[in-house]
Specification:
Blueprint (H helix, E strand, L loop, with lengths): L1 E6 L9 H12 L3 E6 L3 E5 L4 E5 L2 E2 L5 E5 L6 H4 L1 H8 L4 E2 L2 H8 L1 H10 L7 E4 L5 H7 L5 E4 L9 E4 L2 H7 L8 E5 L7 E8 L2 E9 L14 E3 L5 H13 L4 E9 L2 E8 L5 H7 L4 H14 L10
Parallel strand pairs: 1-2, 1-6, 6-7
Antiparallel strand pairs: 3-4, 4-5, 8-11, 9-10, 9-11, 12-13, 12-15, 13-14, 15-16
Helix pairs in contact: 1-10
């Protein structure tokens, strides 16, 4: 089988370790695999045919494309190549619309709240005059402040006082803020649950470094093995399904009232999870890619009409 991995890394940077790991795993399993760089694609619409080009040549037929959309700005435009592949009948995962849902923190919260998936208390405001209302709604100070878009902990801040909150919000740079309760019970730790094809394939406890409240590995957090509860497993699977993702990383906080979902990632990293727990994540991804490709029978594929 021919398996493609679609990387959104800037051309000035190498493909991620996860992308290379998936490629090497697929090859070790006897499949053809290649990492494609999103910036090297061209789309041509000339009224007679649609053409998907890679480095100026017709994009070859692949059985399935695993997307790794590491983009934070202009997401809909940046991942338009994924939508084009879908329209041409190429089996891709994660898909265009689920990625948009996951990349928008507000949209993700809306969907999870709709399906009664537990999340931290959250208020969304667009004007400074509603700060007091927002703080009261989430249970008082301190609070977590987020912008709708961001990853690896970017755009996330803890604020200890209303005066500090009012001074740090820059309404000129952002016209919307998410004010969220600070879950003190988590004590700077969260759980990453890696889901592939409706199954939990790996879990990791992440603990923040000294002086930092965010547990992201990229910010110096440490990872280690953890056993999750049936409730944590259930809400993780439900959250990924609610966003229509084929695979995802679910971040959970443990509180006295039970687990709450902090965020869902549509291009979750897993090198730290594999290193910390010894669990193989790349193999389940490739195995699901094969299963996924075999279940999808393209209506058509090609660069013609």
């Amino acid at each position: 089988m021919k398996i493609g991995i679609l990387s959104f890394k800037a051309l000035s940077k190498a493909a991620s370790k996860e992308e290379i790991r998936i490629k090497n795993t697929a090859r070790a399993m006897g499949h053809k695999a290649r990492v494609f760089r999103s910036a090297r694609f061209q789309l041509v619409y000339d009224g007679t045919a649609r053409r998907l080009l890679y480095n100026g040549k017709l994009f070859p037929k692949y059985d399935v494309i695993i997307t790794r959309p590491s983009v934070l700005r202009d997401v809909d435009l940046s991942i338009s190549i994924i939508k084009q592949m879908e329209m041409m009948g190429v089996p891709v995962f994660n898909r265009y619309t689920p990625i948009l849902k996951a990349k928008n923190k507000l949209k993700s919260m809306q969907i999870m709240d709709h399906y009664n998936i537990p999340i931290p208390k959250t208020a969304v405001i667009r004007y400074e005059e509603y700060i007091d209302l927002a703080v009261k709604s989430v249970g008082g100070m301190p609070v977590i402040v987020k912008t709708p878009f961001g990853s690896y902990g970017a755009g996330v801040t803890i604020v200890e006082s209303k005066r500090g909150l009012k001074s740090m919000l820059d309404w000129k740079s952002s016209n919307m803020y998410m004010i969220q309760e600070f879950v003190k019970d988590s004590k700077g730790s969260d759980i990453r649950v890696f889901v592939v094809g409706g199954k939990v394939v790996g879990t990791m406890m992440r603990s923040a470094s000294k002086g930092e409240f965010r547990s992201n590995i990229e910010l110096g957090g440490k990872g280690g093995p953890v056993e999750i509860t049936e409730e944590e497993k259930e809400i993780s699977l439900k959250a990924v399904q609610a966003l229509d993702l084929e695979y995802g990383g679910v971040d959970i906080l443990r509180s006295k009232k039970g687990p709450v979902i902090l965020e869902i990632n549509c291009n979750p990293g897993f090198k730290a999870l594999e290193a910390a727990t010894g669990v193989d994540i790349a193999t389940p991804i490739v195995e699901f890619a094969i299963e996924y490709a075999e279940s999808k029978k393209p209506l058509f594929y090609g660069n013609g009409g």
